[in-house]
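> example.struct
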């Protein structure tokens, strides 16, 4: 038996924004049509969603599939900002090393990935 599609806005947007941009508009309109009779306001909000650019879609996929990595990168960015504000040279060098490790890990994940192509 097929599972029922989500009916709350956040779940719907999560499902739509991991779709390839070329599939987004048709899927968005289909979801809006499905909920139109039961919740016209939700249908209107869904129809107002914009198709993501390829860059935004790639970022959405990264956040959806590797949220742990995104959290680490956000924490690293915050630490880099703080170190730069305080001109903490030694801390900056250590964080730069961390950034290089994250970059290497991301390249390794990408090269070993068998997932969806990003174009």
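> example.seq
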């Amino acid at each position: 038996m097929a599972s029922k599609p989500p009916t709350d806005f956040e779940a719907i947007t999560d499902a739509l924004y991991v779709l390839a941009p070329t599939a987004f508009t048709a899927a968005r309109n289909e979801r809006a049509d499905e909920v139109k009779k039961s919740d016209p306001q939700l249908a209107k909000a869904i129809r107002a969603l914009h198709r993501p650019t390829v860059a935004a879609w790639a970022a959405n996929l990264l956040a959806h599939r590797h949220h742990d990595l995104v959290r680490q990168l956000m924490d690293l960015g915050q630490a880099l900002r703080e170190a730069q504000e305080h001109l903490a040279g030694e801390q900056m060098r250590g964080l730069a090393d961390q950034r290089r490790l994250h970059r290497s890990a991301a390249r390794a994940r990408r090269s070993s990935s068998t997932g969806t192509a990003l174009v």
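> remarks
The chain has a mean pLDDT of 84.
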